[in-house]
Design a protein that fits this description.
alpha+beta, single chain, 310 residues
């Protein structure tokens, strides 16, 4: 009887530990902007848990809090070395785009997800615009903001992760919040965003430069991430007319081979380009006053595995 109940207790504890996986994936993705890196962080976090003795595990009052603290520290270390890694990256680096739950691929867009626990919860904290602003922050600012404002961790716990005082962490989050406010465009209703994206898709398919120019803010920016693995402009293209001509030229050359689909990208209306049925580019948009102010085009196949099942 005792053995049986002991096994039950162990199974329950194991279930509780494993159930933290999705939250840890969500946390690490927001901090790092990369699903692959987030998965590595979670794997390393669990490896450290299982490397402890049973007595050490039993001494931990809240395994979930312990896992979060360890994952946060690993992310902080990775963020500290990210600048050097980005300097070696070919072209522009854009956070990895994620689909909505029904679109996670296991082979092709629309197939069943490989692991539902790895799905990212979509909200404003995963919009491409938000993640790009996070990229401009110091690692400590980023950790303080995401852990406190998104995941509601108290500053006392954040202090343990960052090695700073709670007051310093509060100041870091406040500074990060100002950056978000300064960069954030006025909120646009999702239906209106979707309408602008749909109009952009139709103008692109028609190769209508004039219509594209009308949809783009004169100071709009197009950023493309090919990672050196596929063709991509290495520097951002600035100016509505320049972007319109660049996109129209690409559309004309790919006509008959590429299909554009309206899809949710990081919780916002976006587009997916499929070349011969396989996702080749994922487009995220920032829209202000009915015009597109920024387009992020992710072409790096390493960042499209959630869309292709690769």
């Amino acid at each position: 009887m005792t053995d049986h109940s002991g096994h039950d207790r162990s199974d329950a504890e194991l279930g509780a530990i494993v159930s933290e996986r999705r939250r840890l994936i969500n946390l690490a993705y927001r901090l790092l902007g990369s699903l692959a890196d987030a998965e590595d962080v979670v794997q390393e976090t669990y490896a450290r848990w299982y490397a402890m003795s049973r007595a050490q595990q039993d001494a931990i009052e809240s395994p979930g809090a312990w896992l979060s603290k360890v994952a946060g520290r690993i992310c902080l270390d990775l963020l500290g070395s990210a600048r050097a890694r980005r300097e070696r990256y070919v072209g522009e680096w854009i956070p990895e785009p994620v689909p909505e739950p029904g679109q996670w691929a296991n082979g092709r867009l629309g197939a069943a997800p490989a692991d539902p626990a790895d799905r990212i919860t979509l909200d404003e904290s995963v919009s491409m615009a938000f993640l790009v602003v996070l990229e401009s922050m110091t690692p400590a600012e980023r950790v303080a903001l995401v852990l406190h404002d998104v995941f509601r961790y108290p500053f006392a716990e954040i202090a343990e992760i960052t090695g700073r005082t709670p007051a310093a962490c509060r100041q870091l989050a406040s500074s990060a919040r100002r950056r978000i406010r300064d960069a954030a465009p006025p909120a646009v209703p999702p239906a209106r965003q979707a309408g602008v994206v749909r109009n952009f898709k139709e103008a692109l398919e028609a190769g209508d430069v004039g219509a594209l120019v009308g949809l783009l803010d004169p100071g709009a920016t197009l950023t493309v991430d090919g990672g050196g693995l596929v063709s991509a402009t290495l520097h951002p293209i600035v100016g509505g007319e320049q972007i319109a001509r660049y996109c129209a030229d690409l559309a004309v050359r790919a006509r008959g081979l590429t299909r554009l689909l309206e899809r949710t990208v990081n919780g916002q209306p976006g587009l997916v380009a499929q070349y011969e049925g396989v996702t080749s580019t994922v487009y995220a948009f920032e829209i202000t006053d009915g015009r597109i102010t920024h387009i992020w085009a992710v072409r790096n196949p390493e960042k499209l595995k959630s869309w292709t099942g690769g």
